[in-house]
Amino acid sequence: MTSKAEILVEALPWLARFHGATVVIKYGGNAMTEESLRERFAEDVVFLRYAGLKPVVVHGGGPQISAQLKVQGIESHFTAGLRVTTPEAMNVVRMVLTGQVNREVVGLVNRHGPFAVGMSGEDARLFTAEKKYAVVEGEQVDIGQVGEIVKVDPGAVRALLDDGRIPVISSVAVGDDGEIYNVNADTAAAALAVALQAQKLIVLTDVKGLYARWPDESSLIKQLKAAELETLLPSLESGMVPKMEACLTAVQGGVPQAHVLDGREPHALLLEIFTDQGTGTMVMPS
Q1: Which residue among 65, 110, 235, 245 has the highest number of C-beta atoms inside a 10 angstrom radius?
Q2: How many Å apart are CA 92 and CA 198, to the nearest integer?
Q3: How far apart are CA 73 and CA 76, in angstroms?
């Protein structure tokens, strides 16, 4: 029992420091497809809410989108790591993100109380995007309805937070021309964290953090400054680039701390926020 008391006491300065703080969490990957991890994630988010923080969840749903496209007989194509999103693929993306994944996350959180409210980036024009092109060998390539966020209007999210709710947001955006766009959820989470002046951006992924020499586990980087990350970016594995770019965007936009954590580690969120040791990789302003 003493060890439990020690853990609670260790959490005290962090509870005091982050009371009332807004924390934007990017949720996706393996943590989203395994039932036990999904339930633990929901518990962690509700714990943050009861501990006096203001969590906001932004999610993608790559595996679920790929599965549904397969069911519908629509081939998945990727160019420069980005999903080519035709109008028929966009209908599936929108249906899966907003109609399926968003509902599941909201449902899991709401087992613990009337907290979660689901939103799409289209709602209240939360995310405005414009068309994004892939670049292959220096040439622009059209990849369909894939967007880059150019504006965030966080008013509706703030209203929900002020009402004690937990906004759960799917990474779909709308253009000024009314076109619907698929946007990268890491990028969306970073843009929202900046707009909300969040205290933290936390990106959950399926590795322990950023490695100096991937896949050498002893080379895990516990923390680094934005300028160091900028230097490292060109050498990173392609899957890690959008996550680390999101962290960089956040801290350069005024968010004091951005983290990449292993979403497969039970309660990684709580370990990061409420323990002296922390977990994963933390990025701080230069």
Answers
A1: 65
A2: 31
A3: 9
